[in-house]
Amino acid sequence: MIRLRLYTTLGCHLCEQLEALLATLCAVPYRLERVEISDDDALVERYGVRIPVLVDEVGEELDRGMQPERLAAWLAARGWRDEAAWQGLQRRLNGEAPPGETARAAQGATLRGGRRYLG
After folding, report:
1. Maximal CA-CA distance, the chain
2. Angstrom distances, CA of residue 17 to CA of 31, 58, 66, 81
3. Is the four-CA dihedral 31, 37, 38, 42 of positive or negative sign?
4. Is position 107 within any domain?
5. Cα–Cα distance between 78 and 22 in angstroms, integer?
């Protein structure tokens, strides 16, 4: 199991998007540690305008991971990307998905009207 850290803050919709994409695109089991930046002035200074920031086990950071292409490339570089899920997501993003094709459900997320909602 890999360990990832997500620098976030309460109510961050971009962080929620990243989490939903991660659940869809990551092919390996992972544990996600959420770090609330508002509790620490140094974290606010470092990550305040960059969240969501995803960090791997060796400390390499990914800014703007809520953008599917960025997250997919970051996961692929580590050998963690689910290729079938990525191809399906690309087809949906490009409007090429056949009728009735649905996204692999992210844990804790639902798909309504082509959009993924957490909770």
Report:
1. 48
2. 17, 23, 5, 17
3. positive
4. no
5. 13
Q: CA 12, 36, 32, 5 torsion: positive or negative?
A: positive
What is the C-alpha separation between 76 and 39, in angstroms, rounded? 32
Q: What is the span of the domain harbouring residue 35?
A: 2-100
pLDDT per residue as tens digits for the range 64-85? 889 999 999 999 999 999 999 9
Cα→Cα distances 24→48, 68, 110, Å: 26, 10, 12
pTM: 0.79
Q: Write out the two tokens for 110.
A: 């639902």
The neighbouring-strand residues paired with 31 are 3
Q: Which of 25, 36, 35 is nearest to 74 (CA)?
A: 25
Q: Roughly what angle, to the nearest 10 degrees, separates helices 83-93 and 13-25?
A: 130
More confident residue, 114 or 60: 60
> Is the per-residue pLDDT at 98 higher than 70?
no
CATH number of the domain where residue 96 is located: 3.40.30.10
Strand partners, 62: 54
Q: Does residue 119 form part of some domain?
A: no
